[in-house]
Design brief:
The protein is of the alpha/beta class. It contains 7 helices and 5 strands; from the N terminus they run βαβαβααβαβαα. 38% of the residues lie in helices and 11% in strands. The chain has one domain: Rossmann fold, CATH 3.40.50.620. Strands 3-2-1-4-5 form a 5-stranded parallel β-sheet, sandwiched between helices.
Length: 221
């Protein structure tokens, strides 16, 4: 079996790639750069994890149009990254417009070209309810588009087992699989030492705290 695994360098995508490996899939690692603030660090982490997974291929694709489109604090440095302040409502500033549709479209092309049966993407709604392209309904709709728009044989299945899981559930799953969390990056803002105050840092730290273990990366605050 062969799977395209979207590997951002973050803890969710890394854990999911280890899940795919544990399920017996041969891994084709797919990494995207799109002008995000922590692009350099994410690329380094993704490459390291791909090597540790013995991925058969590491495909890196640049999506420079996201930088030009803007409207996200991840790609426009004039928009500040929000600090976590409790239960946020609405769309967060870190949302990149329709990003997952772009990523999945390219992943589908790669999967069809490599004759992969599955695409693994670590979307998760538990801690990020404001991201519309992480919802189960979006994945279901995109699966329909894949079925209609490809000539894939075998059929390509979108694999999103984390979509309704919490961050701590994901960490516990990863610990059982020996995921090297010291080689992952979650911070939206910094690529040297994690800021500790953005929403992604907050949810990561809380997950490790609830799991009862120390997060292996360093934080500024």
């Amino acid at each position: 079996m062969k799977a395209v695994c979207l590997l951002s360098g973050g803890m969710d995508s890394t854990t999911l790639a280890y899940v795919a490996k544990d399920m017996g899939y041969e891994i084709v690692a797919l990494h995207f750069t799109y002008g995000q603030r922590t692009e350099k660090k994410e690329r380094s982490c993704a490459r390291t994890v791909a090597r540790m997974l013995d991925a058969t291929e590491f495909v890196e694709i640049s999506l420079e149009h996201f930088k030009k489109i803007g409207a996200s604090s991840l790609t426009n440095e004039k928009i500040p990254v929000e600090e976590y302040a409790g239960e946020e409502e609405g769309i967060p500033s870190t949302y990149v417009p329709f990003r997952n549709a772009n990523l999945l479209a390219i992943a589908t092309s790669l999967a069809e070209a490599r004759r992969a049966e599955a695409i693994f993407i670590g979307v998760q709604t538990g801690d990020y309810p404001g991201y519309p392209d992480c919802r189960p309904e979006f994945i279901e709709a995109f699966q329909r588009a894949v079925d209609l728009g490809t000539a894939a044989d075998p059929r390509i299945t979108l694999m999103t087992p984390f979509v309704r899981m919490t961050k701590v559930d994901i960490v516990r799953k990863g610990l059982a699989l020996g995921v090297p969390y010291e080689e992952t990056w979650s911070c939206y803002q910094n690529d040297d030492r994690a800021c500790g105050v953005c929403s992604s840092c907050h949810y990561r730290r809380e997950a490790f705290r609830e799991a009862g273990i120390e997060d292996p990366i360093e934080y500024e605050r």
